[in-house]
Every structure is written in structure tokens, then in C-alpha cells.
Design goal:
Length: about 525
Amino acid sequence: MALRLPSPFLAKMKSLLGENYDNFMKSYEQPPFAGIRVNTLKIGKADFLEISPFALAPIPWCPTGYYIQEGERPGRHPYYHAGLYYIQEPSAMAPVELLDVTPGDRVLDLCAAPGGKSTQIAAKLKGQGMLISNDLHPDRTKALAKNLEMYGVRNAVVLNEEPERIAGAFPEFFTKILIDAPCSGEGMFRKDESMLKYWEESSPLKFAEMQRDILKSAAAMLCPGGRLVYSTCTFSPEENEGMVAEFLSEHPDFRVVPVDHSEFFSPGETDWMAGQGNVKDDVLGQLAGTARLWPHKVRGEGHFMAVLQREGELDLREAEKDQAPWIQTGRLGHGSLAVSPRTDTTRERKGKSALREERPGKLGRGSNGASRQQASRRSGGDRQSNPISLDPFQAFIQELYVKLQGYPVVYGSHVYVSPLPEERLKQLKAIRPGWYMGQLKNERFVPGHPLATALQADEAARHVSLSSQDGEAVRYLKGETLSIPEERVMCRSGAEAKGYVLVCIDGYSAGWGKWQSGMLKNEYPAGWRWTSV
């Protein structure tokens, strides 16, 4: 059945597109395009192409993105649960490519849920630098945290904050900022018909108010020489070129970095802006360097993007100074962690007391982290009278062939490794302050699911690989106990088969199990389990 598009929307598009309007309308007669993006944190692109269960065609603006055929169900394959790819609308892959993230960047994804662009950024960081992913809506941050965990991201923090509060904590801090702004969603009508229910003729102006405030906060957080990408999935010029024009007029230290226009990237709509009569010529000229993806010109939905550069030079020495240190376990006394080479002198002076329960913000569950009931107020939370021993955690980590980079953060009995010292997160609502290691329980350490999903098979003391072909992997993902003979448990030299085992699917990590006497007890979290028939 054909979409019933609102008449005010159609009238506006006809005015905007002119002779291209008929071609634009024909795009609604076509089904939306689907895509997946290879998660290079877990598998190389060439390796994935060799094992891909789908027929793939490359997406031209994303080197790790591929179209999949209509009718494919990539969410119902074990590789999805192993985090080998992210299911993403093809046009939505473009903004992160324009952000030009490189390893070592300090990146903020300001409107991040459900996490597709954050996982794309994380893959480009390659575990170096840091990613702060934020979303204003508490419920949406749950999906955001889960996606970062599923895709094996080690160097990310998830916040649930107002942009201006983050700006107060991180002035001129980030080298790259992505704003995938909340918008009227006109570009997604074909893909998600339900968005039509929420659209009104006044929607563009309503969302423009939000976008204006978000851009203002983002400008305060971008360091000199940094890059900001502003994107929307709407056609409305008020939310796109109009918003960029207003921003440039108020921030003369920013300029548009022109996008190379091609058969895919169309230039920004300057004719509409010129008709407004209040845009300066120098700003109008820059707007031509913004980009649009039109559904009648590309195999994807509608998208707008503007690349904005702040004047100045990036201070690489500052970036190096902010790089998180390596953590060395087992080098200090009982219940301690060493931070090397730039040990925090305050932490060193306090010793064990620095590892007491200090909860600078609200901590959400993610997958199996501390629950919200355990979370503290923004004031900094309560302190335990006695420090908790980290010896069991250190003993477990010493069995792994993994180098931990970051700062140890302990919330109650839950252990994280964060790309930021906990002092930087005080007064902010941190849903996921870093890579979740696990929980200390009764003088033992229970490894967390996110620790498993971010490991490679050869980093674990013992691992077992399940086949994606014979139903074995699906049985594990459903939470079943499996019969696994000892010879299938691959152990590092000196390790016995009994104990926590990294469970892999065709060699790629998916979660934990506990092996004993030929049986693999399932440790896959209940909330993550395979529910498809």
C-alpha cells in the first residue's frame, strides 16, 4: 500500500525540488534498502567477506558497509550475536565517514542511541583514544550500552546527560564531535512509516529549537582545530542548511569543510536559503559545501550532513597527555592496582582508599553491570567504610593475554576500566563508565559479559569454538547447557580445562561458559538470549 504522505509535506517538497519532485516521489514506490556494517574491532573486512552468510554489494560511501538483499534477516544469524556486524540503514553510515576519526581521537557522540554510529566510531578508533556516547533519554541509553558491549568496545563511556552539563565538564576537550541531531525524520518515512504519526507541519521549527541548543553546547566542547559533523535524517532546510547558517553567523571561528560532491553526495540547498534574504554571502557560499543524500539519487534514505571545522591547530601533546595509562595488575599490595606510566599521585597517596565505592553518577545495568538501585546521586555517592579487595579480579585478569588501558573504577562490587579518571565523571550520570570487567562476590571474581565480548579467542586462558552451522551456537545463545568434551576446550599452556571458558562462534567471542567434567554451563545473560524461532 502506498504511503499517505501529509499534504503540507508534499507541497514543501515540490517547492524545494522543482523539476526533481516527480523522481523524488517515485522513490516511495521502491522498498527501503537494508545494510550491514562489518565490525572491524572483531573481524577484518576480508575475513568477513569469506564467511558472510549473505550476498553483499558495497555501499559506496562506507568502506565497511554492504547492502544486503531484500528479505534477508541478519538479526537471526549467530554472527549478529557475536557482534561481527551492525545492522544499519545505508545512508546512516555516511556521517561518521565524514567525521574522519583516527586512532587516538577524543570523540563525543552527543545524540548516540541506539549506538550504530558509536560502534562505527569505535571501530575507527581501534581501541585508542576515547569515545563518550551520550543520549538524553534514559531508556535509549540501555540499547546504546548494550550495542557498545556486543560489539566489543573497550574505550567508551555512556552518559545520560543534557549537552550543556557535559559542556561544563569538558570545555574544549574533544577533537571530534558527532551530532546526529533529533529531527522531524522526514527522510525516514519510507523506512519507518510510523514516523508519519508524529510529523506535523510545525515539526521542523520545533526540532530546530533543540538543534540550536545542542549545537551551542557542542561548540563549547570542541577543541581548537577540531571537527564537528552535524547530521539529520530530514529534508527540512530549517533543520539543515538553515541551522548551519545560523550557527556559522554566531560562531565565526567555525567554517564548513566542503564535502566532495559526486553522484551520491548532492550539494546543500542554497537556493532555498537565498530566498530567506537574511543569509550573508560568505555563509551562503559555505552552505554549498554541505551534503545531502536524496532517496531518488542513491540507494538509501534521506540524509543531510555538514562538516564544521574550528579554527586553530590541534595540540597533539595535549591529546597524548589525555591518553589513558596502561594498568598493571599484581604489582602492588593487597587490593591494589598499579597505573603506569602516569600514575595518579592522589590515587597513589590514598592507596586502597582510592578504590572505595565512589559513584560519581547514576550507573545503569547495561548487560550485567551494577543496577540503577545501586546507583548514587550526582553528589558523588556514599563511601564504603572498608575498601574491597581486588585480588580475585587481579588473579583472573592475570590469566588473560590482554593489556588493560584505562583507569580502574570500582562502583560497589563492580569493576570497570575507564578511558577517563573517575574524577572527570563526577556530577555526570554515567550509565557505563568504561569497559565492564565483572563483579566481586564473596572473595571471588565473576567476569562480566562485556569483558568476554571484547576479547579475542587467543586472549583467554581457555576457549571453545561453537559452530554456526549445526545449531550448536544457537543452543548456546538460547541459554542451554552443552556437552563439550575436554579435547575441544583450547587451553593456554599450564591452564586446566576446568573454569571460565570464553565461548566463541566460529572463533569469534560471544560470551562466557563454565566447563567441568564434559559439561559447559551457560553464562550467557538472560536478557541477551536468542528468542527467534
